[in-house]
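We both want to read discrete structure tokens more fluently, so let's practise on a single case. Would you supply a protein for us yourself, any chain you care to pick? Would you write everything just below, so we can both look at the same thing?
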Amino acid sequence: MAIPIVLLALPFLVKNLVFTGNPVYPFLHRFFPSPFWNDTSAAYYHTALRRFEIGEWRWHTWFTFPYHMVLRPRLIDVQTGLLPLLMVPFLFLRSAGRGESLLKVFLLGNLLTWYLFQTITRSLLTFFAVLFVVAAPQVERRLFGSPQLRRAAFVVFGVLVGASLIVSAFNTMVLTRPLGYLFGLEGRREFLRREVHGYRALEWLNGNPAVRGVLLVGMKRPYYVEKPAWFSAFADRPIAEVLLDGRRDPAAFARELLALGITHVAVDRAEYRKDLRDGLYGWGKSGRAVFEAFLERYCERQAGFGGVEILRIRSPGSPATSGFSRDAAGLKDIPCDPVL
């Protein structure tokens, strides 16, 4: 059994090893060191997952977490509806066979694991699937098999399914609104401008022939960038910190970026502030000071789109121009040290 699993996982292990130096990236980073992951990244990742759905766990949260998961998810697109809660009482009825008992043991272990890691709603999808497999036969026998309860069961299940459909319709019709693009009522460009944060900045970078390469700071999902881009994804060691790599001279850093082919920097001010506050950066006071001095002294502002500043890197020694302002970016009040 283990051999097929290893063979299926082998391509992904090799890919991770080639690209990151760690076959199980981002886990076990102390055994497989990677330049893209460190203790700060691991702490940020761990805290973000454990506090993504429920920001603060108190004594009563251990008992009320099903309410939070089902009725108050952080993201509406993973709202589960009330059907899972309705199915839970049927788990306490006598099992029809050994297979059903084993599935109940799996559900118990899955739930205890979730309690241990306190992670996101999506990690409960397997739990929900098995929950419905176990409870559905009991529902059919106990409710729909009874002439007295069948009508009430139809009403209750109809209301709950309808409520879930309303949430799905809200996601589709109000939040993302893809139907206009689907039926040709708006073009791809209009749809992306409306739905993709920072798309106008990426559009400017793609259409500017002076941009040979771009350093993206705080822009972690640049799916539509067409120029060579240096960026970091969620919880990765920030790309600005990776490239700075302990350097102390802003001018030398500017020259090295230009040598790499990076001519521009795009800074999402809100995300950069958030990452500083959340402790994602592990470069300390000196590293942050060097990077922000580089932005102020050796970058020239080119454009701004919805909080994303686009800067052109100038060669040290060229005349100083208006660059990145820490005051305008709202960075003066943010502590330099990690806060995790």
Summary: The first strand starts at residue 214 and ends at 217. DSSP finds 14 helices and five strands in the chain. Confidence is low (pLDDT under 50) at residues 336-340.
